[in-house]
């Protein structure tokens, strides 16, 4: 979790506070973020006219699910009152679902707001 409290940005992993940084180091963030992004990214230069064979994360498609595809779970944002909230207005985007894809998980589970994503890149459906 990353959040701003007063003059500092804090980083916490699980229940352990890892550290903090003075807010002045991140002057472009102002008082907070206006957009949050989660996911993966690859570079595709289409060398030889073919899509890259670079895996996104585990290299497994989202519909392969847990223990195969990569995922984010229990996604939350911190609002201006330092309260954790499930993100609102989330919409998945993908540029080529034959190479990589994304699948939203189920809300109301111990995984909270979540999604699976990934893919192998170059394959029979992704030339």
What does this protein look like?
- The protein has 2 domains: 1-34, no CATH class; 35-127, no CATH class.
- It is built from no helices and 8 strands.
- The chain has strands at 2-5, 8-13, 16-22, 70-72, 77-78, 84-85, 101-104, 115-118.
- The strands form 3 sheets. The chain has a 3-stranded antiparallel sheet with strand order 1-2-3, with no helix packed on it. It has a 3-stranded antiparallel sheet with strand order 4-8-7, with no helix packed on it.
- A hairpin with a 5-residue loop joins strand 5 (77-78) and strand 6 (84-85).
- It is globular.
Fraction in beta strands: 25-35%
Low-confidence stretches: none
Provide the number of structural domains: 2
Radius of gyration: 18 Å
Order of H and E elements = EEEEEEEE
Task: State the end-to-end CA separation.
Answer: 38 Å
Spatial order of the strands forming the largest sheet = 1-2-3
Mean pLDDT: 91
Helical element count?
0
* Major β-sheet annotation: 3 strands, antiparallel
Q: So what's the overall shape?
A: globular
Provide the helix percentage.
under 10%
Specify the structural class: mainly beta
Number of strands: 8
